[in-house]
Write a sequence for this structure.
């Protein structure tokens, strides 16, 4: 239970995107410390193939140190796994002083209940992804994967990312309507999660489609907030983007993190 919290998602941090990392570090120094809790709803990193693979990475150690500093300053830090960094383990979480949340999670913030999820489990129109997700989230599969040499894990992850990007680009070019449907959450899945948890206020990321929705199905109604992804490194293809949701006693509001 927290009197206030700020939520972010889908930063996809990587050394090759220094401006995005710089804005994140600034966010940790300013916006995050104005709240009792910082909640990261997945895909903090572009990819993660095991804590041991990042043990000596200066970039990932710097991220951990910045997060730890926020925690030591009095802001509790929470992390929920995304589809890119679901292998982030307790070792790195301890270094960053983050508490790992299950997905989904209901939390009390400013005396209200909030249903939190990364969001990928709600994209049930993409049946091939859901099959893939069920396999890679298996504890046995993860254990076997983490037993592989680091270089091989990185190679596999890079190959999966490249294939996924190529498939998305082909579909986007020839069948944009399919991308529109598969890349978003479904009403049935969202309604099912609301019914399961009994919470009518949902926040998620993953889809990169920041918005606010009032929805209903089967006699139940709920509100849904979608967080933005972050990108401050590719102005030639997209405008800088990144937001956060602030929840306080005064209500919920979106924070535009793009510098004016």
């Amino acid at each position: 239970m927290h009197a206030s919290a700020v939520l972010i998602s889908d930063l996809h941090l990587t050394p090759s995107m220094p401006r995005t990392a710089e804005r994140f570090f600034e966010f940790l120094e300013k916006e995050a410390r104005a709240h009792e809790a910082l909640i990261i709803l997945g895909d903090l990193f572009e990819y993660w193939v095991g804590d041991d693979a990042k043990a000596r990475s200066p970039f990932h150690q710097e991220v951990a140190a910045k997060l730890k500093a926020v925690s030591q300053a009095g802001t509790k830090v929470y992390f929920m796994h995304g589809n890119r960094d679901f292998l982030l383990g307790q070792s790195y979480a301890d270094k960053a002083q983050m508490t790992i949340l299950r997905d989904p999670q209901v939390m009390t913030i400013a005396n209200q209940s909030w249903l939190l999820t990364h969001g990928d489990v709600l994209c049930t129109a993409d049946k091939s992804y859901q099959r893939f997700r069920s396999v890679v989230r298996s504890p046995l599969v993860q254990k076997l994967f983490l037993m592989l040499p680091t270089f091989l894990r990185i190679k596999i992850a890079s190959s999966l990312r490249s294939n996924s990007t190529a498939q998305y680009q082909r579909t986007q070019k020839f069948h944009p309507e399919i991308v529109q449907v598969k890349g978003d959450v479904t009403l049935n899945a969202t309604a099912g999660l609301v019914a399961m948890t009994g919470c009518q206020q949902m926040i998620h990321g993953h889809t990169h489609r920041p918005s606010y929705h009032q929805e209903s199905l089967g006699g139940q109604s709920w509100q849904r907030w979608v967080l933005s992804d972050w990108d401050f490194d590719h102005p030639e293809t997209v405008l800088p983007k990144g937001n956060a949701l602030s929840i306080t006693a005064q209500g919920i509001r979106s924070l535009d993190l793009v510098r004016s």
About this structure: The chain is about 35% helix and 20% strand. The first helix runs from residue 18 to 29. The CA atoms of residues 48 and 73 lie 27 Å apart.
